[in-house]
Amino acid sequence: MTLLLVAAGAAIGAPARFLTDLVVAHYAGRYLPWGTLIVNVVGSGLAVFLVVTVTNADWTALLVTGFCGALTTYSTLSYETLMLVETGRWRHALWNVSANLAGGLGAGLLGFALAHLVTG
After folding, report:
1. What is the pLDDT of residues 88-120, one digit of tens each?
2. How many structural domains comprise the chain?
3. N or C: where does the chain have the smaller number of CB atoms within 10 Å of the terminal CB?
4. Residue 111 in contact with residue 48, Cβ under 8 Å?
């Protein structure tokens, strides 16, 4: 049952990541990987918030492991960073890694704090 819940969450999270990237690229262009940054930061904050607030293991499997796991993407971060390096854009590559790590950790801390405010 848990596997099905993870798969169901991922079936929503992965298209959400793809669509977010399409929309962001439409408005911001593809010079920098803004879509990946957005899904990684939002997904990190949401995942931590849900881990603290959701106590049911089934809901955690669906929302955290499935949805947030498929929404966020380390592989795309790696690929896009390597493409920046390959095109000689080292500073952009360093910025990309730094922004994803700092943004994800910052969003995680914010999600943690908000969850504790909500749960008391």
Report:
1. 999 999 999 999 999 999 999 999 999 999 998
2. 1
3. C
4. yes
Domain that holds residue 16: 2-119
Give the annotated binding-site residues: 69, 72
Annotated binding site for Na(+): 69, 72
Q: How far apart are CA 110 and CA 24, in angstroms?
A: 23
- Identify which of 33, 31, 14 has the alpha carbon closest to the alpha carbon of residue 81: 33
pTM score, whole prediction? 0.95
Rounded to 5 degrees, φ, ψ at 16 are: -65, -40
Residue 113's closest CA among 49, 68, 51? 49
pLDDT tens for residues 77-86? 999 999 999 9
